[in-house]
Amino acid sequence: TQASFWLLNGSGGFNKLMQATTYGRQRDEVLQTASAFGAATFNGTLYGVGYSSTGEVGSGDLDGRNLASYWTLDLNAGTVGTTKIIPLPDGEPGKDDSVLQNSWAVSVNENGYVIGNQRYSINKGQNRPTETFLFNLNNPSSAATIPLQDKPLSGSGSEGAAINDHNMVVGWRDSRHQTQPVANGTNRMQEAFLLNAASPSNNWYLNDLICGLDDAGAKQCAQNGKYYHIAYASGISSDGTIAATAYRYNSESDLNLRTNATVVAVKLAPVGHEHYKGNDPADYVVSNAPVNNQTGQDGEDGGGGSLFWLTLLALPFAWLRRYQR
Question: How far is CA 137 from CA 120, 145, 165, 282, in A?
Answer without folding.
Answer: 24, 13, 14, 28
